[in-house]
Amino acid sequence: MSVPFLEVLATPPLNSVQDLGRPGQRRWGIGPTGMVDGLALQVGNALLGNAPGAAGLELQLFPVRLRVLRDGAIALTGADCDARLDGRPVPPWWALPVRAGQVLELSPPGATRRDLAAPALRACLSVAGGIDVPEVLGSRATHVRCAFGGLEGRALRPGDVLAAGAAQAPAFRDPAGFGALPPATALPLGEDPQATTVRVIPASDYDDFTEASHEAFWSDPWRVTIQSDRMGMRLEGTTPLKREVVQEMRSHGIVCGVVQVPPGGHPIIQLNDGNTAGGYPKMGVVIDPDLWRLAQLPPRSLLRFQRCDLAQARAAALEQDSYLAGLRRLSALSLMTPEVA
Amino acid sequence: MAAHNAFELAAPRVTPMGSAAFLLESEGPMCLPTQRRIWAVGQAAGDLKGVTDTQPGMNNLLVLYDPLATEPEALQAQLLALWIATPDTPAPGKLIELAVRYGGDGGEDLLDVAQRKSMTPRQVAEMHSSAEYTVFAPGVIPGFGYLFGLPEPLFLPRRDAPVNRPLLLNVFIAGLQCNVSGPPVPGGPQAGPTGWYSLGQLIDAPAPFDLTRDPPGLVEPGDRIRFILDEVLE
């Protein structure tokens, strides 16, 4: 059963209902969409005892103010947005009970402090039972470009009312709630404290690039430019990436995390709202278990690429899986099921 | 061995597209027989354990999988086995006719293409509409997909730098490809940057994508498209 749970009091544009995306629709030219920081959503869902793919709110512009319409439970993951519930601070990566009438407020990440070692851009709000909007082609994710999914196929607006899928919220053993070890701490990667490191598997056009390009790609830091959004992330480096041989490319399917290099030599990383197909040469692809690291990179932050292979990528996926399994055990210990309560 | 394909194809190049997909790229010139194998393998691969989606491209195939549900090395071998054993997708798909107004608003590049090819705009329009096109692959957003069948005299490399063009079911060409781009839904983007050349605009075209229909897409790979010359604005 679905009940009105949250009212949007204030939000800038570009915040939306997202889940883990819309797989299996590529034959219609429909890409994944879904939460860019999919791991943050999975953490929030694990803490609340939701299904892994239950929909939440992706918040990437602030300030955001929401009123709770009914007693329930929420989790805040992703970027630390100095969240306040009726003025009282809520720690990041935290699940807690909320009561009807309370107001939740989130500020821009880094408004109070900017931490190079833990860049932050997008927050995720999960609710017990998941945000309840109609499924379209198997997913609740908002497809902004095609104007379907999510809440009426669009970004959130002040005045919107969001329903939650759970009629009865779980009860917390500790009314203050409980938290998760953040992924940046639980799954550390890279040695440069000034830059975020992601692992990349070389793609089919890798060998076409010059030796100098290969060298620069793996050893230079890359700066995230302001031309970055849910479609993709443009990078700037000191060495433009060039190909040895230039041939006409054939259009082919592309995925989130693909590092494409247009003629100018500055790479673009494709994200969740990007095209399903492309024809630019590909240097490599950021592995799925590291996509959440990209999701939290604000403009001007630095990125490093670490070479990896399929076996290492699978090990990373297993490591992430076991991190989430640990959070589900923590949740089972920290929540009482509605029947018991 | 169940292989009865008249058309012998070299094994495709298989490379990882990240940690959860493989790209199969066929060798040789772009052609329909190869694409019929691509469609067939894509269809068959969808039934393999751990495969989550497949997407044909231009003589290539993207296969997405869950790396925790299948061994990537084993999947790679299964895909190569399918390439040999899967019969090509046989019959051509349905034929759809689309009326086009060449040139004018929405056909901004007709004159440019004509000049580059030392032809008149009408000759370009007549040549473009004389061919039958095959939907080779889904497009980047819901629509009529990537079309193959452009007559060779109209081949033109895509622009070095993209230009802004309307997207109101416009007919574009680039390289040896053709496509029709438009807002997939009412209220969608009305224009966008593209390296392709806009020849004209569809007249009274059916919506290529409609969520109230089942299936929502009008065309699928293998379907054929014929452009009917409605008028040429010079």
Describe this structure in words.
The complex is a heterodimer of chains A (341) and B (234). Chain A has helices spanning 38-48, 183-186, 211-219, 291-295, 310-334, and strands at residues 3-10, 16-18, 56-59, 64-68, 72-78, 84-85, 88-89, 94-98, 103-106, 123-127, 131-132, 161-164, 171-172, 178-179, 195-202, 222-228, 232-236, 252-253, 258-260, 268-270, 277-278, 282-286, 302-307, 335-336. With 341 residues, chain A is an alpha+beta fold. A 7-stranded antiparallel beta sheet of chain A has the order 7-6-9-4-1-12-11, with no helix packed on it. In chain A, strand 19 and strand 20 (268-270) form a beta hairpin. In chain A, helix 1 runs parallel beside helix 5 (310-334). Chain B folds into 2 domains: 13-85, Gyrase A, domain 2; 95-233, Cyclophilin-like (Cyclophilin, Beta Barrel), CATH 2.40.100. Helix content of chain B is 19%, strand content 32%. Chain B has helices spanning 32-45, 72-85, 110-116, 121-130, and strands spanning 13-16, 21-25, 51-56, 60-65, 95-103, 132-137, 146-148, 163-166, 170-174, 177-181, 191-194, 197-203, 224-233. Chain B has a 7-stranded mixed beta barrel with strand order 5-12-9-10-7-6-13. Chain B has a 4-stranded antiparallel beta sheet with strand order 1-2-4-3, with helices on one face. In chain B, a hairpin with a 2-residue loop joins strand 9 (170-174) and strand 10. In chain B, helix 1 crosses helix 2 (72-85) and helix 3 (110-116) crosses helix 4. The longest helix of chain B has 14 residues, at 32-45. Chain B is elongated, with a radius of gyration of 19 Å. Chain B starts with 12 loop residues before the first strand and ends with a strand. Chains A and B meet through strand 18, strand 21, strand 22 and helix 5 of A and strand 1, strand 2, strand 3 and strand 4 of B.
- Give the end-to-end Cα distance of chain B, rounded to a whole number of Å: 57 Å
Order of the strands making up the biggest sheet of chain A:
7-6-9-4-1-12-11
In total, the number of domains of chain A comes to 2
The number of helical elements of chain B comes to 4
> Pairing-aware structural class of the strands and helices of chain A?
alpha+beta
Q: Residue-averaged pLDDT of chain B, rounded?
A: 89
Instruction: Look at the structure and name the CATH superfamily of the largest domain in chain B.
Output: Cyclophilin-like
Write the element-wise H/E pattern of chain A from the N-terminal end onward: EEHEEEEEEEEEEEEHEHEEEEEEEHEHE
Tell me, briefly, the overall form of chain A: globular
Largest interface: A-B, 45 and 54 residues
Find the count of extended strands of chain B (DSSP E, 2+ residues): 13
Helix percent band of chain B: 10-25%
How many beta strands in the DSSP annotation of chain A? Answer: 24
Query: Looking at the structure, what is the overall shape of chain B?
Result: elongated
Intertermini distance of chain A: 19 Å
CATH architecture of the largest domain in chain B: Beta Barrel
Contiguous low-pLDDT stretches of chain A (5 residues minimum) are none
